[in-house]
Amino acid sequence: MAARTTSLPPRPIRRRSWWFGVVVALLLTAALFPVYPGVRPLREGSIVARPIHAPRDLSYESEVRTNAVRKQAADAVPEVVVLDTAVRDRQLADLERVLREVDRVRKDAALSDSAKESAIRAIPGTAISQASAAALAKLTQERWEGLISVELRAVLGRTLVGAVPAQEVDQAKTRAAGFFSPSLTETELAAARELLSPLIITTLKVDVPRTEAQRKQARENTPPVVVTFTRGQPVLDAGDLVDAAAIEALDRLGINDGALRWPVAAAAVVAAVVAGVATALVAAGVPSLVGARRRLLFALLLAAAVFAAKSAAPFLLPDDERRFLFLALPLCAAPVSVALFLDAGAGLLLTALLGALTIFASVAAPGATLGEARALEVAQFAAAITVGSLVAIGVVARSDRGPRIILAGLAAGAGSGVAAGALLLLDPDRRSEDVLWLVGGSVAGGLWTAVIAALAFALLGKMFGIVTRVQLMELGQLSHPLLRRLQDEAPGTFQHAMLVGNLAERAADRIGADALLVRVGAYYHDVGKLYSPAFFVENFGDDPSPHDRIDPMQSNRVIQQHVTQGIELARKEKLPEAVVRFIPEHHGTRLVSYFYRRAAEARPDISPDAFRYPGPRPQSRETALVMIADACEATVRSMSDRSTERIREVVERTIRERIEEGQFDECPISLRDLKVVAETYTATLNAVLHPRVEYPEPTRRELAARGAVPARPEAPRADLPQDVIVADLPVPARRAISEDDTH
User: Do residues 332 and 393 touch, judged by C-beta distance below 8 A?
Assistant: First the structure.
């Protein structure tokens, strides 16, 4: 295997697994991010929808409660007040201003009596009635200056001469009324009191430094408030109004969904660990996870299931009403879908990862596991998903005709219910009516699992271009209409396809390729020959070759059309693209060499490109295997010498030619794979096409036993064993060995 052996690309499974880990880590971090649809963050002023209990014992000094108690102690300290001697002088000066204004209005001759009354009432700092204003306007000048003004100055000065606390101002005003001269009339006394009342205020002021010092001392002497919670103790009851102290308690207990820093870090770490485990397992070799689309589908289904579990946990855990609604969640649909699209091994891997992540999502949910749910409920949740998925995968893995999705869904529900019921026996608070709710939740979950898995099966397969094993098994049934047509219209092609499928399937299994896809692809790789089966050698029979009557160029077109027409027919029959790819890739870009050489005999300058298949070259190991098997089977069947050495020579030459032509440059098949393929094809072809032993003619005794000739004694022949007498046998009785006569 010379020249171009180095052009074969290395197998990329291990070296290209890193991106899968990155994608899984990012998707899981997003799925586990501590933001929960439909869950409103607890903030001051929020109303608690359901009781929240302490997940652990805790004792701490409450900053919020301590500040509130210390503020209360400081507010209880009265203000320290002292006499303000300047108050009396300020108020007396204000009184002089009022008296001057009243005197000015009284002396204004241009004003009428009513105008004077209004002007007196409008003087700033006064609050007198209309009657009092009228009395002041009508007073004689002598009475005003000699009595009223003098009395007002004397009474105000006497009232404010001592300490007048703020709370005793009204009492001071009452006392001031008794200081006026008895000579004042009742009307004059009322007017004087109304003028004086606004001017009587407290004569004390707050000593701020001394007050603050005493209040500071009161705060310092108040000890901090210690809050203690025991595990299971109510922190907030349903309907409570959340205040600052409650927010502090939730933060200290670690169950406040508003504190995102540590939950985000935890989600990122868990996602990274799970991604690392998944990447390591894929790199170690999971055949069904080879290919970007398959890995992306696996990652998306895992993240979607984890997101659903995380989003539902705050509403379903703890199960205070014992309704077992978590059993109705169709989370098992993700492993079932993976098992349908990929295989049971990939489904089991997703089940293991999903079970672990469900526990984390339940524990991290706000107000759920850490807040109040018992560990038994978390175990029931995770066990229901894990056991239900395992049972459903077992059902799907045994399916060989049709998806049986409904049966798988019901199996998932039954497995989930049994797992949750087994753990329910450990609950001391279990009740007989729990069984009804448990069964109802399991049935609902099983039905929803079937519905969602069926939708995923119908939509995601086309979206990701992934053919499922169930589809392949259905296509591999010989009763498929297209294979029936091959049997009836092109029996030689059908037999060729069957043998190519057997050859390639065994080799695929040995090198770790998709053996089922290889077998099905081989079955359909020559369906284009249905348009003109008589032009292909395996269908000639005893008839002469039709190519003897037409030009090599016409023969070339007929031969090449089996590729283009095969693609058209396969897509018309809605075969998956993964199977359709076998039709053009099993010939790659090789020459139709027989007719090219015939044409070159007549026209040496003819271009070989006109006799070259359109391709593309094999893009996968599976199509490469069918390319090799197709050529080897046809060549070996046409040989008269089918010894082991001759078959090995043909197989190795076939592989070497395609390497030299670069047919494997675009697929990840290695030289080690090709060596295994050569050994496998040699052994298989030798077993299937080994030389037959030609049996001697039957003896007269055998024929007589069958009634073919009358029984009579006959002398034995010297050149034959004594029981072999064939001299008188009729020609029709002679026969060659049949398939049933092989050793």
Answer: no
Q: How many CB atoms lie within 10 A of CB 339?
A: 30
236: three-class secondary structure by DSSP: strand
> What tokens appear for 241 in the block?
């109004």
Question: What are the backbone dihedrals phi and psi of residue 674, each rounded to the nearest 5 degrees, phi first?
Answer: -65, -35
Q: Which long-range contacts (CB under 8 A, 24 or more apart) does 573-578 make?
A: 573/481, 573/482, 575/475, 575/482, 575/524, 576/461, 576/467, 576/471, 576/475, 577/465, 577/467, 578/465, 578/466, 578/467, 578/517, 578/521
Prediction pTM value = 0.61
CA distance to 372, 416, 424, 437, 713, per residue, from 430 (Å): 18, 18, 7, 12, 93
3 state DSSP class of 612: strand
- The rounded distance, in Å, linking the Cα atoms of 261 and 691 is 76
Exposure letters 80-105 (e unless 16+ CB within 10 A, then b):
ebeebeebbeebeebbeebbebbeeb
**CA-wise closest residue to 13 among 291, 300, 344:** 291
The secondary structure of 4-59 as a DSSP string is TGGGSPPP-TTTT-HHHHHHHHHHHHHHHSS--TT-PPP-TT-B-SS-EE-SS-EE
Count other Cβ atoms within 10 Å, centred on residue 488.
Answer: 10
Q: Which residue has the tokens 């990840």?
A: 668
End-to-end CA distance of the chain: 36
Q: Which two tokens stand for residue 377?
A: 């409920």
| Among candidate residues 476, 404, 414, 466, the one with its CA nearest the CA of residue 443 | 414
Q: Which two tokens stand for residue 524?
A: 């359909």
Q: How many CB atoms lie within 10 A of CB 361?
A: 29
Annotated domain spans of the chain: 18-26+30-39+258-466, 81-200, 508-688, 698-743
Residue 37's alpha-carbon distances to 127, 315, 409, in angstroms, are 64, 11, 27
**Beta-carbon count within 10 A of 183 CB:** 10
Q: From CA 614, how far away is CA 560, in angstroms rounded?
A: 8
Instruction: Kindly state the DSSP code that residue 2 receives in the 8-state scheme.
Output: -
Average pLDDT across each block of 10 residues of the chain; the chain has 743 residues. List them in order. Answer: 37 60 92 78 78 82 93 90 89 92 89 89 88 88 88 91 89 90 89 91 90 91 93 84 88 65 81 91 76 88 94 82 90 93 89 94 66 71 95 79 78 94 88 92 95 88 78 89 93 93 94 91 94 85 79 89 94 91 95 89 88 92 95 89 91 95 93 95 86 70 71 50 39 34 33
Q: In 3-state terms, what secondary structure has residue 591? A: strand
Question: Contact, 387 vs 368, CB < 8 A?
Answer: no
Sequence-separated (6 or more) residues with CB below 8 Å from residue 255: 52, 55, 366, 367, 370, 371
Phi/psi of residue 467, nearest 5 degrees: -90, 130
Scanning the structure block, which residue is given the tokens 């070497």?
656
Greatest extent of the chain over all pairs of C-alpha atoms, in Å: 188
Q: Which amino acid is at 492?
A: G
**Structure tokens that stand for 7 in this block:** 């052009």
DSSP one-letter code for 205: E
Q: How far apart are CA 575 and CA 462, in angstroms?
A: 11
Which residues, in sequence order, are bridge partners of residue 139?
A: none
Strand partners, 612: 591
Residue 542, burial from CB neighbour count under 10 angstroms (0-12, 13-18, 19+)? exposed
Nearest partner of 473 among 544, 387, 599, 576, judged by Cα: 576
With beta carbons less than 8 A apart as the criterion, state whether 438 and 420 touch.
Answer: yes
Phi-psi map region of 38: left, alpha, beta (phi>0 left; psi -120 to 50 alpha): left
From the list 439, 435, 427, 421, the residue with the least C-alpha distance to 374 is 427
Q: Quick one: tokens of 293?
A: 């689309």
Separation CA 54–CA 62 (nearest Å): 16
